[in-house]
Amino acid sequence: MPQLNPNPWFSIMLLSWITFSLILQPKISMFIPTNPPLNKTHTTTKTTPWTWPWT
């Protein structure tokens, strides 16, 4: 059964994960978010309960 042969696909998967882990992940993690969540204030909204006509 050729789909169980991991010869070409395992090496491709391993190479892609190594590329992602060593090259792309540090570059992506260096970005600074433009809207950090710590600067936002939490606003609470007043909700009123729904009155059902049949109760």
TrEMBL record:
Q: Which PANTHER family match?
A: ATP SYNTHASE PROTEIN 8
Source organism of the structure: Chloroceryle aenea
Q: Where in the cell is it found?
A: Mitochondrion membrane
Gene behind the chain: ATP8
Q: How does it sit in the membrane?
A: Single-pass membrane protein
One GO cellular component this record assigns the protein to is: mitochondrial membrane
Q: Extract the InterPro entries matched here.
A: ATP8_metazoa, ATPase_protein_8
User: A Pfam family for this UniProt protein?
Assistant: ATP-synt_8
Name of this chain's protein: ATP synthase complex subunit 8
Q: Which of UniProt's keywords are assigned here? A: ATP synthesis, CF(0), Hydrogen ion transport, Ion transport, Membrane, Mitochondrion, Transmembrane, Transmembrane helix, Transport
GO biological-process terms attached to the record: proton motive force-driven ATP synthesis
Drop me one GO molecular function for this one: proton transmembrane transporter activity
What family does the entry list? Belongs to the ATPase protein 8 family.
Bilayer-crossing regions: 6-24
